[in-house]
């Protein structure tokens, strides 16, 4: 990847051998590897068996999980927050693991809709929940720094599975909890 970054730097009309840029291909390669490290992670490793028995069958909401991803069309960041809710059936997931699972999928090349669905399906699989709801609100640099150059639009996407899809009351409870904490 370092060679490719050096070549890109050259192609934009810069001199990759000037002092300020000498180490840039190496840094950029390391940064890009970090931003896409989700490809090297597996769900099982990340969850690390942090599932705990619980007789709670009430909604669990983890709100405002920061999210940094890369849009698969322009390789530019989209940045925002993710809200994850589920209704457990006998076991709950370690709190930090919810945020870690968001990152497993955010740290890949994504469109926001697929990212939202992948997070919801994974939480459902891992917990065996009765239902899962995921909402992502994000700003896309490809719409802000270039292209249409709109600074204030926010994309909101949701994925509702199980009881979050079938029950209006469950969806309403989710939206109500979100309002309480924001
Ligand atoms: N649905 C969706 N679209 C996205 C996402 N990220 C970027 N895009 C859009 O992907 C589209 C790519 O459109 P193209 O016409 O192929 O590319 P482009 O000429 O660079 O488009 P502009 O951004 O309009 O300049 C654009 O409309 C982007 O806004 C995303 O997460 N979800
Ligand atoms: Zn884009």
TrEMBL record:
Gene3D superfamilies: 1.10.286.10, 3.30.1130.10. Zn(2+) binds at residues 71, 74, 142. Residues 1-178 form the GTP cyclohydrolase I domain. The keyword Isomerase does not apply. One of its GO terms (molecular function) is zinc ion binding. InterPro entries: GTP-CH-I_C/QueF, GTP-CH-I_N, GTP_CycHdrlase_I, GTP_CycHdrlase_I_CS, GTP_CycHdrlase_I_dom. Pathway: Cofactor biosynthesis; 7,8-dihydroneopterin triphosphate biosynthesis; 7,8-dihydroneopterin triphosphate from GTP: step 1/1. GO terms for biological process: one-carbon metabolic process; tetrahydrobiopterin biosynthetic process; tetrahydrofolate biosynthetic process. GO terms for cellular component: cytoplasm. Keywords: GTP-binding, Hydrolase, Metal-binding, Nucleotide-binding, One-carbon metabolism, Zinc. It catalyses: GTP + H2O = 7,8-dihydroneopterin 3'-triphosphate + formate + H(+). Its EC number is 3.5.4.16. Signal peptide: none annotated. Belongs to the GTP cyclohydrolase I family. Homopolymer. This is GTP cyclohydrolase 1. It comes from Pseudohalioglobus sediminis. The lineage of its organism: Bacteria, Pseudomonadati, Pseudomonadota, Gammaproteobacteria, Cellvibrionales.
């Amino acid at each position: 990847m370092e060679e490719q970054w050096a070549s890109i730097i050259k192609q934009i009309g810069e001199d990759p051998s000037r002092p300020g840029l000498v180490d840039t291909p190496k840094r950029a390669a390391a940064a890009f590897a970090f931003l896409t490290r989700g490809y090297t992670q597996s769900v099982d490793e990340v969850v690390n068996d942090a599932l705990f028995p619980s007789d709670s069958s009430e909604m669990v909401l983890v709100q405002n999980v920061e999210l940094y991803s890369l849009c698969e069309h322009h390789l530019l960041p989209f940045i925002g927050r993710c809200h994850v809710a589920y209704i457990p059936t006998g076991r709950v997931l370690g709190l930090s693991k919810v945020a870690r699972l968001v990152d497993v999928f955010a740290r890949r090349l994504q469109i926001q809709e697929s990212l939202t669905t992948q997070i919801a399906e994974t939480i459902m699989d891992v917990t065996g929940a009765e239902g899962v709801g995921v909402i992502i609100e994000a700003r896309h640099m490809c719409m802000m720094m270039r292209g249409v150059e709109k600074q204030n639009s926010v994309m909101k996407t949701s994925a509702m599975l199980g009881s979050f899809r079938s029950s209006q009351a469950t969806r309403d409870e989710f939206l109500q909890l979100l309002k309480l904490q924001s």
